[in-house]
């Protein structure tokens, strides 16, 4: 998908809505549908956002209605920029493609303007953990534009239970990334927490920042060995991508 904007290219990332068929369904005592509406309303009122990228785990109960609820929430918010999406470990490709079809939804897996190429990387596997088919990363090292990658699973350890369900082929992933010098950052969901990590590689002089996206649903308590919510509201992340390759990001909590 080509962008007509120059700089900055502004992207809102939201992730991990974990919806139920019942709009009043609770996840760790939290109404996740209402939280999604809160995030979407905030995105809709912010100026100069060019794209929204949803990085997966739309559904918690794996029902068709949860996908319908997500689509209707986006329509209700009157989002007027393209909404791209990835599958999380809870999601089904066929249901995403069936219900996320009308504008503003887009099945495109990249965004491009004069200075940047932003690519959505599929990491869904047959288990809750992730696995990136490395052919998706072919020719990243040949792209001369600045690059930002979005994915669902986290390619680094964050220090709590979700690491048991992280990216299984991290070593192979980073071997490819190390050779792509124009990659300015990697953004993921899955961890239900806002963080910024520096991933180093011997093959690369500079580290690659990894940005984890807080969830629209709940934020995990890292002190608990399992799913437990912190008293933090629905959240998402904003990226500003400048023509000179500078990348700025902030987490928004509501």
Instruction: Tell me the structural class.
Output: alpha/beta
Order of helices and strands: EEEHEHEHEEEEHEEEEE
CATH architectural designation:
4-Layer Sandwich
CATH class: Alpha Beta
**Distance N terminus to C terminus?**
30 Å
Strand order of the largest sheet: 6-5-4-1-13-14
What's the overall geometry? globular
Q: Please give the number of β-strands.
A: 14
Number of domains: 1
**How large a portion of the residues is in β-strands, by DSSP E?**
25-35%
Share of residues in helices? 10-25%
- Computed Rg: 17 Å
Q: Which whole number gives the mean pLDDT? A: 94
GO molecular function, one term: metal ion binding
Family: Belongs to the cyclic nucleotide phosphodiesterase class-III family.
InterPro entries: Calcineurin-like_PHP, CNP_phosphodiesterase-III, Metallo-depent_PP-like
Keywords: Hydrolase, Iron, Metal-binding
